[in-house]
Design goal:
Blueprint: E1 2-4, E2 10-13, E3 24-25, E4 30-34, E5 41-52, E6 56-57, E7 60-68, E8 77-82, E9 85-89, E10 99-106, E11 111-112, E12 120-134, E13 138-144, E14 151-157, E15 165-167, E16 172-175, E17 182-185, E18 190-192, E19 199-204, E20 210-213, E21 215-224, E22 230-240, E23 246-248, E24 263-265, E25 273-275, E26 282-285, E27 290-292, E28 300-303
Length: 309
């Protein structure tokens, strides 16, 4: 089968190809949802056959029908017949006379099979025939119809002017993961539409299960249905830094008083060692400008960007 359901000319197999692999199977295929403004074109069909000496295929024909899955099946449309061989090669399995593998094809059709269809679920059924000559049997017709069940694909029609709906979660507030300036956050965004086939995409933010940095990240999603109608939603993920920084004070300092004085100024206190799960911590101390004789305790404080100390 040769069709264009909106993404270009595509071939589908009715029977397992030789050699494999081939194309997707037509039987059981779901072509999705179509709006009346779209087209679904039957472009033709292809038969792969062989002839060996006087055994030969003379032509190929396609029959098709499209109908609501809830309705009785109508008569098939056809035959659409081709006598055009687009490719042939030697067939090594035949050792007498003229031997060829052949590919028959008619891809000239421009039939829009969904034109004028009402909303609903449809079946697209096909079968093929081929006229042949075969030894003492003479002429005949080979029918490929899936043992009388025919080859059936399906699709939906929906005149969709109603935008889909999309639901984001409420804003999320969460503490940072231990030792990290971030947190892994999972969430779910859902959508519904009067016609099946809508898709959700993220236009801003970080995907569910991703690593969110400390601070607020806005996540925006858009849902688009088969007719192009859209809806959006957004929510914030706020990761709070609740982890205190750490600090190690410098060594104790022992100094002499200034000459002729009972105190000392300009004491070099050294620097503390600090760390934090997020960058940007600052340090301060309560040291006086002038130290008197005796013991003075200096307290160092480290504060991170979130105000934890």
């Amino acid at each position: 089968m040769i069709v264009n359901s909106g993404s270009g000319t595509t071939y589908y197999d009715l029977l397992p190809p030789t050699p494999a692999p081939g194309n997707d199977d037509f039987d059981g295929w779901d072509f999705g949802t179509f709006a009346p403004t779209q087209t679904f074109t039957l472009e033709g069909f292809q038969n792969k056959t062989y002839k060996c000496d006087t055994d030969n295929v003379l032509n190929g024909s396609l029959y098709y029908r499209v109908y609501l899955s809830t309705d009785p099946a109508p008569a098939f449309i056809g035959p659409i017949t081709t006598t055009t061989v687009i490719y042939e090669e030697d067939d090594p399995s035949c050792f007498i006379g003229t031997d060829r593998r052949q590919t028959w094809e008619d891809s000239s059709l421009t039939t829009n099979i969904i034109g004028g269809l009402a909303d609903g679920h449809y079946y697209f059924e096909v079968y093929t025939t081929a006229e042949y000559t075969f030894g003492a049997v003479g002429t005949g017709t080979h029918v490929s119809d899936n043992t009388g069940s025919y080859y059936r694909a399906s699709f939906m029609m929906c005149d969709d002017t109603i935008p889909p709906t999309i639901t984001c979660p409420a804003n999320i507030n969460i503490n940072n993961d231990g030792g990290l300036c971030s947190a892994v956050v999972t969430y779910s965004v859902t959508s519904t539409d009067n016609c099946a086939g809508e898709t959700i995409s993220q236009t801003a933010g970080i995907a569910s299960g991703g690593t969110f940095p400390v601070g607020t990240t806005t996540n925006t999603f858009v849902v688009t249905d088969a007719a192009g109608n859209t809806a959006t939603c957004s929510f914030d993920v706020t990761v709070n830094d609740t982890e205190d920084p750490t600090i190690s004070c410098p060594a104790d300092v022992v100094v002499s008083t200034d000459v002729g004085s009972c105190d000392v100024t300009g004491v070099a206190l050294g620097s503390p060692t600090t760390s934090d799960n997020c960058p940007g911590e600052t340090t301060a101390n309560d040291a006086p400008a002038t130290f008197p004789i005796g013991l003075t305790i200096v307290t160092w404080t480290v504060t991170d960007a979130a105000g934890n100390t």
